[in-house]
Amino acid sequence: MTVSRRHLLALPAALAWPAAEAAAPAVPAVPVRGGTLVIGVGREPTLLTSAITTAGPTQTVSGKVFDGLLSYDVDLSPRPQLATRWETSADGLAISFQLRPGVKWHDGQPFTSADVAFSVMEAWKKYNARGRATFANVERVDTPGPLVAVLRLSKPAPYILRALSSVESQVIPRHLYAGSDLLANPHNNAPIGTGPFRFVRWERGRQLVLERNPDYWDAGKPYLDRIVFRQLPDPAAAAAALETGAVHLSSELPLSDLAGIAAKPRLALHRRTASAGSGITGFEFNLERPLFQDVRVRRAIAHAVDRDFLLKNVWYGYGTVAQAPIPKPLAEFHTEDVPTYPFDLKRAEALLDEAGYKRKANGIRFSFTNDPNATGAVLSQTAQVLRSNLARIGVRMEVRQQDFGEFVNRVYTRRDFDTTIYSASAGPDPAIGTQRFYWSKNIQPGVAFSNGAAYRSAEADRLLEAAQVETDPAKRRALYVRFQQVVETDLPKIPLISSETVVVAQKSVRDFLTTGEGSSGNFANAWLAAA
Amino acid sequence: MSIRLPSLSWFTWLGALRRPLVRALPTALGVVILNFALLQLVPGDAVDALVAEAGSATAETTALLRERYGLDQSSWHQLGDYLQHLLHLSLGYSPRYDMPVLDLILARLPNTLLLMGAALVISLTLGVALGTVMATWARRWPDRLLSSLAFLMYSTPGFWIGLMAIVLFAVQLGWLPSGGDGTVGAELQGWERFTDTLRHAVLPACTLASFFVAVYARLTRAAILEVQTQDYVRTARAKGLHPARVRLRHILRNALLPVTTVAGTHLGGLLGGAAVTETVFSWSGIGRLTLEAVQAREYRVLLGVLLLSSLLVIVANVLIDLLHARLDPRIRVA
Fold first, then answer.
1. Are A448 and B64 within 8 A, CB to CB?
2. Looking at CA atoms only, how far is residue B85 from chain A in angstroms?
3. Would the CB atoms of A240 and B68 count as touching at under 8 Å?
4. Is pLDDT of B298 > 90?
5. Which residues of B touch A445 (CB under 8 A)?
6. Interface test with B, best of A59, A206, A247 (most B CBs within 10 A)
7. Where are the alpha helices (DSSP H) in A222-361?
8. Is residue A1 within 8 Å of A193, Cβ to Cβ?
9. Å from A411 to nearest chain B CA?
């Protein structure tokens, strides 16, 4: 019986990688217990629970310590985690959760519906910047029993069920947080969760250690004894640590190094990454500048961008060319049916002539500045490519470099910019990850990653607001398709590349990318094969 | 026949320390105020940096964070607050790291001191040795060869040397670890822990030292060539002392004076160079903390680091003064 099930499990893998299967001698299909997994991380988290922040470094660590109400498959369909059953009422105004019995916090206290109510109302809704949007319509959480929690909504919010993973919305223990200042609670740095791994210690700037939770509700899991997050601030040093075997896994290597690393016999490249939170990189206009108020100028610039060149030479092929604001992995909402702006310099020049920006005696039509965000070399390289693309149609673009703090302050507070290039997570749902950049009510000076273009469109607003409360999936998709067509016609932001997170790992690391949460997932299934 | 060394009593020590420490007070205050002002001039504050990392924000979460970081207060108020903490000998509390700044710094200080100390010893030993060799065979092939080598070390950026050292010794040869300050998860104690740390320190210390080796080698060479022509050297030779003795006692000893002076001023530079080396070798020390603090606009941590480093440099300079007094009895301490 067991044997036949093993065979069934091994079969799809054999079909997908026949060569690897033939080369690898007797790969055990059954997970092995034990071992320490070392993960290389570049930036250190500021705190260790995602209940009150959306920072990536925090998610990577705390996603293994905490559980969400739900987990997600690679195709983003929900699976039970702390909630075993869930149901939305016909009017969409109540979402009830049946909670898993017998779950204990790492300090031994029982997990109950009071923890869920507390996490929604006091943590996610108040302190998590995406949670504020996701749970805005939640008026209260009823707890008719210790294992039943019911979210009562003022308006339907179908996206809530897509945002309950252990990465996005972590359930935190009420008994340790209630009555305290959440942002200053000592458990933010020494978290107590219900997840497969327990927090052991954090040596700032060096390493962070988690150990196996022997009382995890998913009996027998996790397989690993320990996970150590080792801080490797320099990407080249991280690559060296992978090559020497000092580190098992890293998702922060420079794209330019990946091909060379993938060729090493001990290492494997994983491109099937988190579907939730896939990113989109775009070129955004400051529509408060008169130059960019003419849509012909924006379209001309879009026509002048050689996205294929970008993908091939700056992104090394890791990603896809983006034509729409909602990226492909969010398949339920993404559409290809939008106005596109293929690379066409003649068309770009014609549009600029038509808009009245003829080439002057020196061949220049106009000049402006661009500020790429400081998230890595890729964005400034993208800006450099665009600069040379635009030079060919007589447009001079000056690229400015700065760090995080200056970028946010310049763009969102001082509004002292012409155009920007930045990558942003599309979140688990367009209402959470995409709406913020296009909704006129989110033009909020001083707030980072709001509607920085200052784009105002009554039609886009209407579609976004309707989609937010639409409970019928087909109608909801139709609204988002229409929305994408509207904003690609108006073009406040040119989508460039839908990026991938590429994970490089020792071949001995198995089954760690089994869920939609990707490498921020809980690693309950991950195991280490003998090298 | 031995040269009498001046004995250093407790009194001399106190005398040596008093003046610099009195001078240190206004220096420290200047360091605090100047750097606070500089950080105020840099656009973007701690919360801007924080939300940029988080990738999302709302007006309410931003306001909450500003309040928690005390950034809703005026700059004067923040500076006053900080100085008041200092009066109580406290470096304050960092909301970003959620721990007292002093603890944060002390946790990393030993690592940086180890790296700096090792680099200083390596660079002085090697530098003086190479310089002596160069001076002995001045303008002949060993001198030319070593001069070119020194020039190369002087002009190659530290991060590149570091990365190449990693590629060669860690990746290709596998002799030494590629980074970090200890084997992950090894939980070593005592002697084993010490050798483990040492193994991890070899590459970063040599990388950090490379630039200074070149400086000291050039300096020693020039100093020896100059001292060689002094009258007392001729006298020593004339009275029939062994050439090696003349070289060590009369020439090198005097030639070391400019080297130690420059080494003293280099301590600050070593701290600065440490930021790059620490990043390349994932070495958790003060240099990296400084870099992080600037990027995070966390002025409490930055000011704390700068204050402690200025203290460190002052103490180191006192030690150099004392060393001078030992090398050259003509120099009076204080």
1. no
2. 20
3. no
4. no
5. none
6. A206
7. 235-244, 255-262, 295-304, 307-309, 345-354
8. no
9. 10
A318-355: b or e for each residue (b if 16 or more CB lie within 10 Å)? bbbebbbbbbbbbebbbbeebbebeeeeebbbebbeeb
Query: Structure tokens of A288?
Result: 């408060």
- Pairing of the two strands A366-372 and A395-399: parallel
Measured in angstroms, the CA of A438 and the nearest CA of chain B are apart by 14
Whole-angstrom distance between the N-terminal and C-terminal Cα of chain B? 29
Q: List the single residue in A55, A233, A444 with the smallest CB-CB distance to B53.
A: A55
> Residue B296's closest CA among B100, B42, B86?
B42
CB contact under 8 A, B98 and A410: no
Q: Which residue of B has its CA nearest to A245?
A: B171
**Residue A38: closest CA among chain B residues belongs to which residue?**
B184
| DSSP state, residue B15 | H
Q: Say yes or no for a CB contact (<8 Å) between B45 and A424.
A: no
What is the rounded CA–CA span in Å between residue B92 and residue B108?
A: 17
Between B64, B99, B296, which is nearest A127 by CB?
B64
ipTM surpassing 0.95, yes or no? Answer: no
For residues B271 and B309, is the Cβ–Cβ distance under 8 A?
yes
Which of A154 and A513 is assigned the larger pLDDT?
Answer: A154
Phi, psi of B328 (to 5 degrees): -135, 105
| Cα gap B55→B52, rounded to integer Å | 5
Smallest CA–CA distance, residue A406 to chain B, in Å, is: 5
Q: Look at residue A432 and tell me whether its pLDDT is greater than 80.
A: yes
Q: Which amino acid is at B115?
A: L
Backbone angles phi, psi at B69, to 5 degrees: -85, 0
DSSP assignment string, B33-61: HHHHHHHHHSSS-HHHHHHHHHT---HHH
Q: How many residues does chain B have?
A: 334
Q: Are A63 and A50 contacting, i.e. CB atoms less than 8 angstroms apart?
A: yes
* Paired tokens of B263: 């080494």
pLDDT digits (tens, 9 = 90+) for A261-314: 888 889 999 886 556 667 899 999 999 999 999 999 999 999 999 999 999 999
Please report where in the chains the tokens 């790059």 appear, as a residue: B276
- For B164-272, strand residue ranges (E) read none
* Mean predicted confidence (pLDDT) in A233-252: 87
Non-local CB neighbours of B276 within 8 Å, separated by 6+ positions: B158, B159, B162, B287
Which chain A residue has the Cα nearest residue B186?
A36
Q: Model-level pTM?
A: 0.83
- The whole-chain average pLDDT of chain B stands at 82
Which residues of chain B lie closer than 8 angstroms to A425, CB-CB?
55-56
Direct distance between the N- and C-terminal alpha carbons of chain A, in angstroms, rounded to an integer = 29
Question: Taking CB atoms and an 8 Å limit, are A204 and B163 in contact across chains?
Answer: no
Cβ <8 Å between A244 and B174: yes
Q: How far apart are CA A494 and CA A497, in angstroms?
A: 10
Q: Is the pLDDT of residue A503 over 60?
A: yes
What 3-state class would DSSP assign to A119?
helix
Q: Rounded to an integer, what distance in angstroms lies between the CA atom of residue A68 and that of residue A276?
A: 14
Pairing state between β A279-285 and A78-80: unpaired
> What count of Cα atoms within 13 Å lies in the side-chain half-sphere of residue B220?
31
CA distances to A233, A333, A373, A412, B299 from A402, rounded to whole Å, are: 18, 34, 8, 14, 18
Q: What percent of chain B has pLDDT over 90?
A: 2
Of B43, B59, B177, nearest to A246 by CB-CB distance is B177
Please enumerate in sequence order all residues whose Cβ is within 8 A of that of A318, keeping only pairs 6 or more positions apart, or say none.
Answer: A255, A258, A271, A499, A500, A502
- Taking CB atoms and an 8 Å cut-off, how many pairs form between chains A and B? 183
